[in-house]
Amino acid sequence: MVNQCANTNCGKPLHYLREGRIFVFDVPVPDTPETKGGKTRLQHFWLCGRCSETLAMEQTSSREVRVVVRKNKAALNPAAGKVPGSLAS
Q1: How many domains is the chain partitioned into structurally?
Q2: What are phi and psi of 16, to 5 degrees?
Q3: Which is nearest to 28 in space by CA: 64, 2, 67?
Q4: Containing domain of residue 20, as a range?
Q5: Residue in 88, 89, 2 with CA at minimum distance from that of residue 45
């Protein structure tokens, strides 16, 4: 169960889902005699509103989940931040 911000530097308690962002990943279940390895389950993570403005979550190729800095959309698409007809360049 999600009960606080996934950013370890924050840890804000989750009270309402109207703020922030939920991430869902398929994560491996630890190996036990009952699971026999290779099993996965959906796990939910939450970033509070403040953290989700600059951070996101991703799953690595080794299936680890981590908090990362969000990519600047304007850097990926130079026209993204421009208003049609504006003089900004």
Answers
A1: 1
A2: -140, 140
A3: 64
A4: 1-73
A5: 2
Report how far residue 81's alpha carbon sits from residue 3's, in angstroms, rounded to the nearest whole number: 35
pLDDT tens digits for 11-44? 899 988 889 999 999 998 877 666 566 788 899 9
**Residue at 80 is within a domain:** no
Which of 2-6, 72-76, 77-81 has the weakest average pLDDT? 77-81
78 domain residue, yes or no: no
How far apart (Å, rounded) are the C-alpha atoms in residues 68 and 65? 10
- Residue 34: the pLDDT is 61
Residues 6+ apart with CB under 8 A from 77: none
- What is the model's pTM? 0.70
Find all residues with CB under 8 Å of 55, minimum gap 6, and list them: 7, 47, 67, 68, 69, 70
